[in-house]
């Protein structure tokens, strides 16, 4: 199916979407995406919900250590029989996977170990590869600022705060 895009005022802002050069996922500018769906292990939904307050409370700590994650979501779906994750991150797929394993492995184990059926933990490289085998790229992917990284956002936030302080002091 080679449907042609009809050029109009709505397509004038179209983004150039490519694929990750080294793995699954779409890419727009400096941002990539990936999603995955797996089977929930017996008792996994209960375990996930018990861990959820701690997982959520530690999210900023772990994702700040990784330093390239814009959005990360994990949720149980289909009456707690499957688990879905979606991620938007900076850069290429393989370096992102290495960063997350190096910087946030304990948190990933807290999220997925005993919850995702068959996942044996981040220390087991084959298990990580099996988990990633359930990953897929989105059909539709859009990002507002494709060339703005997580570091750029943090820098702009600091700069905005400094300018606000300066303007407040001047008034």
From TrEMBL:
Keyword list (alphabetical) reads:
Plasmid
Q: What is this protein called?
A: Uncharacterized protein
Organism, by scientific name, is Sinorhizobium chiapasense
Kindly list the organism's lineage: Bacteria, Pseudomonadati, Pseudomonadota, Alphaproteobacteria, Hyphomicrobiales
